[in-house]
């Protein structure tokens, strides 16, 4: 059995939101009993509806936020509480890259200073060695010496994201959680960064949780993927197989909507109905108000997760009753 | 909404605006420099009413700077020259108070960085309310009702409650939809959308792009869609403009550019896209690096990375030239191929 670097066991996380200053507090269940595991040296992609809880799941996996219930195991042991010494020690081995590079960078420091900063803090090597290391890492992500002296505001969006990536990788972490890391990059740089991440993964045995909306990139970079909808995992399995033969009706719509340059080959499934509201979760299957194949039972009974013969897990009544159809197609 | 503006081979300024009644926005020889370094090297383009123009290109090529300059949103230290006209009115150098009326009103922009567009300490309902008050003259309860309507339009779930949320209480994609709603609030004639859907899943992305197309068809709003996702621009725009190192290198109708990209940079860009079908192979980025604006090559900016480059490429800056109806490319090799095709039409295009 391969070792898991991270395991999420039935984690849930709610936020309280209120209407107006004195309004009633309403809980929003951002993540609802999510279980996931990431094998060492592998990439697990997390995709799904915007607002379905992917970033929250990532933050919980890092211990940046505590789950209300459920637990997070890092290399088999429970993650220590945030801001304790034990957690800080572990944190050095886990890095996160965010969606918005400008928010992740210190606007007053040059790119080189920011990338070198973790080495400075941990006093690794001499000052000139640290500089060389930081410059080499910047080179690896496609930034040159003249970018190194720039402030974040002087760089383009893609250049900023590469600076963020260089800083995350400089400490050679074991686990990298990427939240939309390449969506600000042009396709050529994206190709470089994807290749780079895959090379570093091999070389450093890096494990990656890759949160993304770009299913083309997900297909390229990940071995396994999980699809979220309104706080829950609705489908999980081998990436190529899942994208070629999506089983859950939401995944089918998602895959069909991927824009392809120069005309699409599959017909787009257009979802109708309101986007889901986490503060008023639909009964039964949360997807039923928009589901093209919903049946009466879907409005009242929440579908359990079924594991199909090819290792795919799906939570859908329509799939439950025909558990063999996937195997037949695959 | 036909493609009616191939970039003219002659300077655009020689064509009086009155000849093209559909022309809404005209940019002529727009240049931008920072600390004496040119990052935008003379952009010419026109935008017709109701048109959808897709802008793609290397990161750092000036896609955002073009429109930030046009709207007077660059820092004061930026050196901007050229002309940007909305109908007959020159926007460059316009007084700040008048420019403020145009921005968010007749011309709206959805910014690439959410953190620079949304104020973190103000509730989103108030932020959109300010736009509605300023550009639509609304007040009181109608502001709240219109804000809710716009949030519903962009598919923000639970909009009645979310009006009172702060940006940090929303997911990345929810904030992105708030920005889209804010841009639509001023009922713009031109919407400049800089990577508007990168934080959205494919189903919502498709819904938003459909929404923008519907508004465009109904109101004649022109759309400039800047995106790294070639699939997104391919499906939404009629005309595509490809930028490299501060200049336009190719422009063509959307369907043609993906079938037969002509500029070597465009070809490289298309080859780098991960396929959604077939075998997974190592991706093929374009060799080399984008030149830094401070050490731009003397000739074609793409020459050091170009597989078709010839000795002239290092000396002459290739002008953007018409190569077919509605198509233009800035490439010396293409020009040669073009001449050859003319002299002996039977000869295969071996370039
Ligand atoms: N601090 C917070 N306070 C209140 N609600 C929050 C907070 N953070 C997240 N939420 C809510 O929790 C839900 C999940 O948010 P999350 O950011 O995890 O989604 P996501 O899947 O990452 O979405 P996206 O793809 O748009 O980035 C959303 O409905 C969001 O509004
Ligand atoms: N405020 C600034 N000061 C100095 N240089 C700047 C400033 N803003 C942009 N630049 C430079 O101008 C060039 C063009 O930047 P721009 O943001 O337009 O790129 P872009 O094409 O939008 O790239 P991306 O796809 O990464 O967003 C880049 O080289 C960038 O470093
Ligand atoms: S459980 Fe029912 S509503 Fe939910 S996805 Fe399956 S068929 Fe559709
Ligand atoms: Mg997110
Ligand atoms: Mg940009």
Automatic annotation (TrEMBL), chain A:
UniProt cross-references to InterPro entries, sorted A to Z: AAA+_ATPase, ABC_transp_ATP-bind, ABC_transporter-like_ATP-bd, ABC_transporter-like_CS, Oligopep_ABC_C, P-loop_NTPase
Pfam family, one: oligo_HPY
Key words of the record: ATP-binding, Nucleotide-binding, Transport
Top-rank taxon, per record: Bacteria
SUPFAM superfamilies in the record: P-loop containing nucleoside triphosphate hydrolases (SSF52540)
GO biological process: peptide transport; transmembrane transport
Gene Ontology MF term list: ATP binding; ATP hydrolysis activity
GO CC terms of this entry: plasma membrane
Topology in membrane: Peripheral membrane protein
Localization of this protein: Cell inner membrane
Location of the ABC transporter domain: 6-255
CDD domains in the record: ABC_NikE_OppD_transporters
Predominant location: membrane
Family: Belongs to the ABC transporter superfamily.
Protein name: ABC transporter ATP-binding protein
Species per Swiss-Prot/TrEMBL record: Mesorhizobium waimense
């Amino acid at each position: 059995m391969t070792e898991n670097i991270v395991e999420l066991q039935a984690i849930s996380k709610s936020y309280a939101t209120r209407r107006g200053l004195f309004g009633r507090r309403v809980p929003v269940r951002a993540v609802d009993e999510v279980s996931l595991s990431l094998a060492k040296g592998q990439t697990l992609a997390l995709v799904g509806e915007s607002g379905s809880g992917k970033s929250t799941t990532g933050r919980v996996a890092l211990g940046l936020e505590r789950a209300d219930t459920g637990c997070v195991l890092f290399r088999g042991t429970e993650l220590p509480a945030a801001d304790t010494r034990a957690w800080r020690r572990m944190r050095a081995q886990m890095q996160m890259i965010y969606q918005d590079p400008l928010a992740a960078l210190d606007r007053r420091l040059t790119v080189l200073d920011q990338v070198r900063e973790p080495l400075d803090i941990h006093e690794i090597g001499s000052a000139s060695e640290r500089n060389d290391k930081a410059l080499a890492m910047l080179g690896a992500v496609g930034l040159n010496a003249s970018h190194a002296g720039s402030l974040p505001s002087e760089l383009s969006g893609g250049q900023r994201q590469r600076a963020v990536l260089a800083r995350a990788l400089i400490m050679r972490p074991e686990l990298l959680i990427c939240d939309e890391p390449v969506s600000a990059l042009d396709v050529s740089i994206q190709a470089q960064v994807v290749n780079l991440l895959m090379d570093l993964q091999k070389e450093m045995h890096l494990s990656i949780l890759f949160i993304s909306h770009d299913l083309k990139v997900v297909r390229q970079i990940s071995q396994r993927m999980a699809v979220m909808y309104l706080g829950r995992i609705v489908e999980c399995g081998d990436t190529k197989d899942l994208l070629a033969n999506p089983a859950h009706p939401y995944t089918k719509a998602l895959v069909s909507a991927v824009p392809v340059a120069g005309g699409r080959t599959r017909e787009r499934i257009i979802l109708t109905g309101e986007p889901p509201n986490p503060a008023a979760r639909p009964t039964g299957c949360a997807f039923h108000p928009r589901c093209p194949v919903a049946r009466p039972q879907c409005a009242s009974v929440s579908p359990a997760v079924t594991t199909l013969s090819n290792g795919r897990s799906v939570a859908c009544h329509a799939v439950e009753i025909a558990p063999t159809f996937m195997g037949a197609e695959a | 909404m036909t493609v009616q503006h191939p970039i003219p081979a002659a300077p655009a300024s020689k064509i009086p605006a009155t000849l093209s009644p559909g022309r809404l926005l005209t940019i002529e020889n727009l240049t931008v420099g920072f600390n004496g370094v040119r990052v935008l090297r003379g952009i010419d383009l026109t935008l017709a009413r109701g048109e959808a123009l897709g802008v793609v290109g290397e990161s750092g090529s000036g896609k955002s700077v073009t429109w930030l300059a046009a709207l007077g949103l660059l820092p004061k230290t930026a050196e901007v020259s050229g002309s940007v006209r909305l109908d007959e009115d020159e926007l460059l150098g316009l007084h700040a108070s008048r420019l403020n009326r145009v921005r968010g009103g007749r011309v709206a922009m959805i910014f690439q960085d959410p953190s620079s567009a949304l104020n973190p300490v103000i509730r989103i309902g108030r932020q959109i309310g300010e736009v509605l008050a300023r550009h639509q003259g609304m007040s009181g309860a109608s502001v709240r009702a219109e804000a809710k309507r716009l949030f519903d339009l962009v598919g923000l779930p639970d909009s009645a409650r979310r009006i009172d949320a702060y940006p940090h209480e929303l997911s990345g994609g929810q904030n992105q939809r708030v920005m889209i709603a804010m841009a639509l609030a001023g009922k713009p004639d031109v919407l400049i959308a800089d990577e508007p859907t990168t934080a959205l899943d494919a189903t919502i992305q498709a819904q938003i792009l459909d929404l923008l197309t519907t508004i465009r068809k109904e109101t004649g709003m022109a759309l400039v869609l800047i995106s790294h996702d070639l699939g997104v621009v391919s499906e939404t725009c009629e005309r595509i403009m490809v930028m490299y190192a501060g200049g336009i290198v190719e422009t063509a109708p959307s369907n043609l550019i993906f079938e037969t990209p002509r500029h070597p940079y465009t070809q490289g860009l298309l080859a780098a896209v991960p396929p959604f079908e077939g075998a997974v192979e190592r991706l093929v980025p374009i060799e080399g690096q984008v030149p830094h604006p401070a050490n731009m090559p003397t000739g074609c900016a793409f020459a050091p990375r170009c597989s078709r480059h010839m000795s002239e490429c290092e000396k002459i800056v290739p002008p953007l030239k018409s190569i077919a109806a509605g198509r233009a490319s800035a490439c010396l090799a293409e020009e040669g191929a073009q001449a050859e095709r003319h002299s002996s039409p039977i000869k295969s295009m071996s370039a």
